[in-house]
Structure formats: C-alpha cells, structure tokens
Amino acid sequence: MADTTKTAATAATSTAAAPEAQPSRRNEKVGIVVSTKMQKTIVVEIEIRKAHPKYKRVMKSNKKFYAHDELNSARVGDVVRIREARPLSKLKALVTGGDRPPVVALAAG
After folding, report:
1. Distance in angstroms (rounded) separating the CA atoms of residues 9 and 13
2. pLDDT tens for each residue of 26-48
C-alpha cells in the first residue's frame, strides 16, 4: 500500500514539475496587411520607429514583408502578427502561427 501512494505522489510531482511551453525564439513583428492579391501570400507593412543617431529625433520608416497565409484568412487593413520561419520561396521565409491573435509568417521583401 505504501508503494502505490509513493508512485502516485511521484506521478503528481512529475506532472506538476513539467516545464511550461517555452515562448518562440523566432522574431515576431506586428503590421498591417496592404495586399492579398496572391494565393496564400499577403503583404504586411511594418512601421519602424528609430531615434536618429546624432539628432535623437524619432524617425519613422516603413518596410513591407511577404508572409505566408495558409488559410487566406487575412484581409486588407487587418493587423497581424508575423513570425520568422524556414524559407518557403524566394521572398517568403515564414509560416502561419495560430495560438494568439492572427499570426502570419514573416519574410523580408
């Protein structure tokens, strides 16, 4: 009887001590969808704010990324989160996620 309680206690401790899901180490960015005219591909525009090295004024610049959208669910004007992945084509290097608000894969373009 003591052995069964010991194993039950050990099993309970091992499940409680299991590590939580690690956050992805892949780079993530949030941007606005500007084009959905390609099949399973969207164009996402990211606004980058950066201080000027000498004058310290905050400068804005935009960069467009091609992202893979497996379900074709994104629409123009949607705010999406994109993340890095393995290369899917010449311009797309990302994969669609799905655990948080719309996550779409990221590729420099």
Report:
1. 6
2. 788 888 999 999 999 999 999 99
Which pLDDT value is given to residue 64?
Answer: 95
The domain in which residue 34 lies consists of 25-105
CA neighbor of 100 nearest in space, from 14, 12, 23, 19 = 23
**3 occurs within a structural domain:** no
79, part of any domain: yes
| Rounded Cα gap, residues 14 and 25, in angstroms | 26
Report yes or no on 16 lying in a domain: no
Amino acid at 101: P
Q: Is 15 inside a domain boundary?
A: no
CB atoms within 10 A of CB 29: 17
Q: Which residues of 54-90 are buried (b: 16+ CB within 10 A; e: fewer)?
A: eeeeeeeeeeebbbbbeeeebeeebebbbbbbeebee
- Determine which helix (DSSP H) or strand (DSSP E) holds 27, and give its type and residue range: none
Alpha-carbon span 109 to 89, nearest angstrom: 11
The enclosing domain of 85 has a CATH number of 2.40.50.140
